[in-house]
Fold:
Amino acid sequence: MRLTLQIWRQPGPDEAGAMRTYDVDDISPDMSFLEMLDVLNERLIVDGDEPVAFDHDCREGICGACGMVIDGTPHGPLRTTTCQLHMREFSDGDTIVIEPWRSKAFGVVKDLVVDRGAFDRIIGSGGYITAPTGAAPDAHATPVSKESAETAFDNAECIGCGACVAACPNGSAMLFTSAKVNHLNVLPQGAPEREKRVLNMVSTMDDEGFGGCTLTGECATVCPKGISLDSIAGLNREFMRALRKRP
Structure:
């Protein structure tokens, strides 16, 4: 396959960026999208040019490190992570536009790499879970209903990639925050800090500069782990409950 790539290049967070065009050929349809970028970078290095910077780690769709906007859609045409997107989804001669996540809260570090530290600060503001120390408790010492367990597991699948923020026209982080709140708050172990957790995490989310949620649904459409809008509804319920119980 021969492809034309239009890639956002930005030397640093305080420098201006621009789109640059590259031609690549001999691309196998079985390559992953990141492997295709590796091929481009090898050529750039040989030519004495600066390689394109992009985030990646496990390359197995687990860690959420990889992430870029491909032809206007976070992670590209499939509902998966960028590292699991393969070049068979494109055609010979295609022009592919590649950009970083676009959000006020995600500053560009270099090229396609953005600073997602805001997510870490949201999680950190949620605090801890009270748990007794000592010997491990019996497996059935704390009963958990099947519905609560499934809700917790569904929300715990969030990998924090940031696609939801990049897809949202408001740059909202509600889907991410709701997943992190709900997977703890629906379990008995998360009950002691339940109200404090949701209030702190929502407050931190707002302080980080994310936009407001208007339930357009784009976040759930692109989420590679299938976190649904039900999660945001759960966050809203938890937030209103916390406000009512707040002294």
Q: What stands out?
A: Strands lie at 3-9, 18-24, 69-70, 73-74, 95-99, 108-110, 113-114.
